[in-house]
Design a protein that fits this description.
This protein is of the alpha+beta class and 137 residues long. The protein is 40% helix and 19% strand. It has a 4-stranded antiparallel beta sheet with strand order 2-3-1-4. The longest helix is centred in the C-terminal third of the chain and has 11 residues. The chain starts with a strand and ends in a 7-residue tail after the last helix. Bound molecules: adenosine-5'-diphosphate (ADP) and magnesium ion.
Length: 137
């Protein structure tokens, strides 16, 4: 068993797709370890996406991620990082496989409904960025 960090992004929360996405999470065998709705501050979003600083889409990404509340999740299952990225689908919904979160709920490469960690190392960093140790027991 291992863990990954997920975000249901502002577009999906605003469109009423929390339930649809949580359903996919549960249907795919993830245990929800922690879950919280939060309206990110600019500082929180900038820090979370610091790895993308300097890229053309960084400012647009920070504005998008702070426009309205998100849902933050700690997820657990076998091969959690790769499996959640598979369930989310490709970054650009135009390239996402049928039935994936992004094919079902994303509207563009930027407004793409969900986040998922890209490695076990980054999952640990991202989980610690948003959750206290006591919430991850
Ligand atoms: P992923 O979320 O699939 O891991 P990246 O880490 O490459 O993708 O990018 C982080 C987020 O930045 C994406 O999910 C998306 O919201 C946004 N993004 C990535 N590439 C672009 C782009 N070319 N134009 C606008 N937004 C983008
Ligand atoms: Mg990424």
């Amino acid at each position: 068993m291992n863990r990954t960090f997920a975000i249901i992004k502002p577009d999906a929360v605003a469109a009423g797709n929390i339930g649809g996405i949580v359903n996919l999470i549960e249907k795919n065998g993830f245990k929800i370890i922690a879950m919280r709705m939060q309206h990110l501050t600019r500082k929180e979003a900038e820090g979370f996406y610091a790895v993308h600083k300097g890229k053309g889409f960084y400012d647009e990404l920070v504005v998008f991620m702070t426009e309205s509340p998100v849902v933050l999740l700690a997820l657990e299952r076998e091969d959690a990082v790769a499996k959640w990225r598979e369930v989310m689908g490709a970054t650009n919904p135009a390239n996402a496989a049928a039935g994936t979160v992004r094919k079902l709920y994303a509207s563009s490469i930027g407004r793409n409904a969900a986040h998922g960690s890209d490695s076990d190392e980054n999952a640990a960093i991202e989980l610690a960025y948003f959750f206290r140790t006591s919430e991850l027991n």
